[in-house]
Write a structure and sequence with these properties.
mainly alpha
Length: 126
Amino acid sequence: MKNFFENLNIPMNFGLAFGVVITALAVMTLVSISGLNLAFDNFVEYRSLARQANADGRVQANIISTRVYAKEVVIDPTEQSVLGVQERAAATIDLIAEAQALATDTVYRVLLESQFEAVAEFIETY
């Protein structure tokens, strides 16, 4: 190999070195682009999951609020406490529908549908 470089003149050595550098830069560019695409895909998935988690939190908060109003109805059944149950349960149904729109997993959608049906059944009792 040493003889190969000794037999080349200086411009050919520079040309060969330049070619090696350009090839290395091209490989690094392709690896970088691939990494950025992967990072972008991961960020899109993260954003989707974060939005779903936020929607789930809102549903959970409204379910808890509905349960608090239902407890008030059991303790002291007033018109205001019954109205509170109905309003919170209706808001919960709306939020479940929003969460279903954000859901990407079919199993998760089935779980949300069962929640939707349970809250709708709960509303019918009030």
